[in-house]
Amino acid sequence: MSKLAVQDKFLDLSDYGRTFGRIFALQLKNTRFTPIHVTLLFGISGSFAIYCILYQHYVWAAFFIILKSIIDAADGELARLKKTPSYSGRYLDSIFDIFLNFGFLMAICYVSNTTFWFTFLAFFALQLQGTLYNYYYVILRTKSVGGDATSKVFEYKTPKALPGESQKLVNVLFTLYTIVYGSFDKIIHFLDKDAYKVKTFPNWFMTLLSGYGLGFQLLIIAVMLPMGWIENIVPFFIVYTVFIFVLIGIRKKFIS
């Protein structure tokens, strides 16, 4: 089930796990498994990847990182198949992502010659990149096919729980979400305040932007690890951040 109208679909470099994720979700459609269970499963896969990095089993680390991306695509697919969208699942998914990203980079720091603060800078850069992608993508989604029920352009107010979920859990997860993502959202909103006024984004621009999607970021790590380029991962993501300003510049100059 697509999040976008036909005319808004683009080649998403970060969404390579979608097909397999959809197949996995279809197998769970008529079972007791919920999207939350799938989210927990991708958290387990990501944790295995961290373990493998720490013990320098880089091929297996790459396998579990890619598996995590596939399973990550499945929870949303399952929610749409079962028609059970939830803010709890939406926030839990994002919270797991940021903690796993931190774990991936800190594990890389531990087994490489990279310093903690340099690695933390790379983590900040990684999250800022992903926030730009999510910012533009959510704007596109909310203006396509009547809008998206659980993703908001501006996450400033605790949402009302949807049927089948606890308002208390939504409150807790929203608070945690704003703590870990709030600063990144504010930075990107500051850099491009008027992006939400855009009627739509061209497909070529979204494909270019998808290089900052989490799936593609993790694919880069998954390729670099077994190639023996672990020392280059942290510097790469720091330098890669420069294209944030290029993409925002393109948006402001050519897309209105």
What does this structure look like?
The protein is an all-alpha fold and 256 residues long. The protein has a single domain (10-254), classed as CDP-alcohol phosphotransferase transmembrane (TM) domain (Four Helix Bundle (Hemerythrin (Met), subunit A)), CATH 1.20.120.1760. It contains ten helices and no strands. It has helices at residues 18-28, 35-54, 58-82, 87-111, 116-142, 167-191, 203-209, 214-224, 230-240, 243-254. The longest helix is centred in the middle third of the chain and has 27 residues, at 116-142.
CATH topology: Four Helix Bundle (Hemerythrin (Met), subunit A)
Structural class by secondary-structure content? mainly alpha
Proportion of residues in helical segments: 55-70%
As residue ranges, the low-confidence spans are: none
Helix count, DSSP H or I runs of 4 or more residues: 10
Largest sheet: none
| Molecular shape | globular
Head-to-tail CA distance between termini:
28 Å
CATH class: Mainly Alpha
Topology of this protein?
Blueprint: H1 18-28, H2 35-54, H3 58-82, H4 87-111, H5 116-142, H6 167-191, H7 203-209, H8 214-224, H9 230-240, H10 243-254
Helix pairs in contact: 1-3, 2-3, 2-4, 3-8, 4-5, 4-6, 5-6, 5-9
